């Protein structure tokens, strides 16, 4: 039995990604780079120039010992590459070339590993910070990550909201959420007040169901607060100013949808529909919602 458990653990961890945070320079410009690579050589990464703190998302592909990250502009056109020959994830140094794909200009990259988050690691640690791929106009985010001995996975234990360019800590919020690759934070106008806010991935459930924690902005204090918004796989429509919920369970045989409006930062249910799959008619029928 013990051997089966160990084998299952090895099979699971072989498909998991390892996140590595590097700090260093592109030419004379200080940067931070966070990679999230899978065993098949694909993955994503985020980097930002320390003087500006606006995150840039990269796609990754490793062929042999060569690791290439591609940067795209707002029109999804490739505009830069970061290439690392003789890449070794275990090395504490990472040296490569940044290239402008339009002009052909090249700059040297010199990085050092700050830390690594690997689900195969059984050690215990706290307060490691991961740059996030989204930011607000004048603020950026870092997740605070914790790893307990009794768990094979690290989890999110907090968020830091930091001012761009000055790196001044604006706010620190304690939470307990599942770590979801690099994409834990989203930004959006969740209460339709014209101010962009943020949410944090909380957990995944059966099927496509997920939940997030939504933080709203208080203009009087200049701080963010955890809202009462709750539900499964919520979607926010800025045109209709409505929130839509979709909850699917039991291999898709049971579906619940909901429509909400926002009043005084509260979700008010307008409409709820529940469907149950009927094997006789081979279709869904409306049922009473519990």
Q: H/E order of the elements?
A: HEEEEEEEEEEEEEEEEEEEEE
Q: What is the count of β-strands?
A: 21
Shape call: globular
Mean pLDDT: 89
Helix content: under 10%
Low-confidence stretches: 1-16
Distance between the termini: 41 Å
Tally of contiguous helical segments? 1
Total domain count: 2
Largest sheet: 8 strands, antiparallel, barrel
Gyration radius, in Å: 22 Å
Q: Could you tell me the strand content as a percent range? A: over 45%
Provide a compact summary of the structure.
By secondary structure, the protein is mainly beta. The chain is built from one helix and 21 strands.
Search tags:
single chain; 290 residues; mainly beta; Lipocalin; eight-stranded antiparallel barrel; five-stranded antiparallel β-sheet; globular; disordered N terminus
Structure explained in plain terms:
With 290 residues, the protein is mainly β. It folds into 2 domains: 116 residues, Beta Barrel (Lipocalin); 166 residues, no CATH class. The chain has 1 helix and 21 strands. The strands form 4 sheets. Strands 1-2-3-4-5-6-7-8 form an 8-stranded antiparallel β-barrel. Strand 3 and strand 4 form a beta hairpin. The longest helix has 13 residues. It is globular and about 65 Å long.
